[in-house]
Specification:
549 residues, alpha+beta, Herpes Virus-1, Jelly Rolls, 3 domains, seven-stranded antiparallel sheet
Length: 549
């Protein structure tokens, strides 16, 4: 008898003349064939399993119904024929399923490529297992289509028909029966047409997604570049601090060594003075002891002549100093530490002078190109055509009403504003007796006089007859080493920092720290009235940054 397991391992294509030796259920060579009352043959196991799953008992081939479950009998002649000819069945090679291809749902061993799918059975068949659909009359009526995977998902749940159409109203796939019921009044088109439309949309979406990916990749690269710049800035800052602090520590160490040496020298001098005094005292004590011995020896002489002769020869008393006036003078250290600290201060000031220059170079890297906005300028102001200069003309011009314009305060803003990051600009203030400049919040009141402080939205530096001041709740008078020629303004929006620099002297003037910025900031300039303190007609000029090595 043919080994059933070996046959299943290699799907069979029934040779001519052996069509009747395969079971219509498992499509394999019969194993223990039995016959139904209608004359059809099946594997005993296959037909029993088939009927176990049915409510009514019918033939799987001709669909003849039986009132009771038939008593199956082995077809002895048929079994002998299967045993005789079953061994002559040869396997014909068929293509195995490849990725993205539909596989046969019946193959139990090596999965073969499906050649058709049955919309009645909802099963895909390879060439071997498709054979009954091409031979058996009842199976020939089934609708075969090109291989499809997940056939159950392609069928309408309501009408059990293939989903072949697309409803444009509800954007769902429907079967032909759906167009006659629930979707009767809806426009429907073949799936292929909608597929082409959606494919075109998908291409557009893919392009948009690709663009978004590229944008984010650029953002990542920008962030990485920013981190590199931050690291470079940090390394430079550390290097500068190491240089300055190393010089300072060396100076402190030298100051300590010089101070220690000076103290030790004074101590050594005091110790030598004390030692000399002690040696002098010890020598006088020795001389006095010797004289005392001579006196004591002479005092024991009873011979008058000898006594007088010896007394005459008694040595003169040793010379002694007035020790009550002699003392060890404690060294004076007054001013010693002060002189050392003065030297340290000189060195520290030299190093401090180097800091603003390095700091100014760094902030100048954030230079922005700003121009003055004539719509904000006070009516007496005259602006240059390039928007880089402003001076007070002394005459109030008749201008159209503008909500942006300053009317009482003699100010002008730039066209540009900044809501994040860092920016820096420079303004020439040469030959002026009064001016004000800095940055302001966008929401400042431009129509009425106010106090120009950070609390009201102004961070400004002002110069007038009182000197150089930073406008705060109380004006802060700043040291003025020489007449300022050009002022640099640096803002770090995110850190809440506004700093001012004397560009020519390369000196830091002052900074406002811990500021809270919640709206755009505008650079602001005021050249002051032209007649202030004599002649103040020179313009304020927004100048390009000249970075020096």
């Amino acid at each position: 008898m043919t080994d059933r397991n070996n046959i299943k391992e290699w799907p069979l294509l029934t040779p001519p003349g052996l069509e009747n030796f395969s079971c219509s259920i498992c499509l394999d060579v019969f194993s223990s064939p039995v016959s139904t009352p209608c004359g059809h043959n099946f594997c005993k196991t296959c037909i029993n399993k088939f009927w176990d799953e049915q409510v009514k008992y019918k033939c799987p081939v001709c669909n003849e119904l039986f009132n009771t479950r038939p008593d199956l009998r082995v077809n002895i002649l048929f079994s002998e024929m299967v045993d005789r000819f079953g061994t002559s069945v040869r396997v014909k090679e068929q293509p195995c399923v490849e990725p993205a291809e539909v596989s046969c749902d019946v193959c139990t061993g090596t999965q073969l490529k499906a050649v058709k799918s049955c919309l009645v059975c909802l099963i895909s068949y390879c060439q071997t297992h498709l054979e009954p659909h091409q031979r058996v009359a009842g199976l020939k009526k089934h609708r075969l289509v090109e291989p499809m995977d997940r056939l159950e998902d392609r069928m309408c749940k309501k009408h059990d028909r293939l989903l072949e159409l697309f409803c444009q109203t509800e954007q769902v796939c429907v079967c032909p029966f759906c167009t006659e019921t629930d979707h009767k009044s809806h426009p429907v088109i073949p799936l292929k047409e909608e597929y082409e439309v959606k494919t075109a949309q998908l291409g557009k979406i893919e392009a948009e997604v690709k663009q978004l990916i590229q944008e984010r990749q650029r953002n990542i690269q920008e962030i990485k570049d920013t981190v590199k710049r931050i690291k470079a800035d940090a390394d430079e800052e550390i290097a500068d601090s190491v240089q300055v602090l190393t010089a300072l520590m060396c100076c402190i160490e030298k100051c300590q060594d010089d101070f220690n040496q000076m103290v030790k020298e004074k101590l050594k001098s005091a110790e030598k003075q004390a030692d000399d005094l002690i040696k002098g005292l010890e020598q006088e004590i020795e001389d006095l002891i010797n004289r005392n011995s001579e006196v004591k020896q002479l005092s024991h002489t009873k011979d008058h002549l000898h006594f007088l002769q010896a007394f005459r020869s008694l040595k003169d008393p040793p010379h002694t100093r007035e020790w009550m006036t002699m003392e060890v003078r404690p060294p004076s250290y007054v001013g010693t530490l002060r002189r050392s600290l003065d030297q340290l201060e000189v060195t520290l000031n030299m190093e401090m002078k180097k800091l603003p220059d390095a700091e100014l170079k760094r902030v100048q890297q954030y230079e922005v190109d700003v121009t003055l906005d004539p719509d904000t300028a006070h009516p007496t102001f005259s602006l240059s055509e390039d928007g880089k200069q402003v001076h007070d003309g002394g005459v109030v011009k008749k201008l159209p009403k503008n909500s942006k314009r300053f009317t009482l305060c003699i100010f002008v803003l730039t066209r540009q504003s900044f809501s994040s990051g860092r920016f820096y600009f420079e303004v020439q203030v040469k030959d002026k007796t009064a001016w004000r400049l800095g940055v302001v919040r966008e929401s400042i009141d431009r129509k009425f006089q106010t106090i120009w402080t950070p609390k009201t939205g102004y961070w400004t530096l002002v110069y007038n007859k009182d000197g150089l001041l930073f406008s705060d709740e109380f004006d802060i008078l700043l040291p003025l080493r020489a007449e300022i020629q050009k002022v640099g303004v640096f803002v770090d929006y995110d850190e809440g920092l506004v700093s001012f620099y004397d560009v020519e002297a390369r000196v830091h003037i002052c900074s406002a720290t811990g500021c809270t910025f919640t709206e755009p900031l505008y650079p602001i300039l005021s050249p002051g009235l032209s007649g202030y303190e004599g002649n103040n007609s020179s313009p304020l000029i927004i100048s390009p940054v000249n970075q020096t090595d």
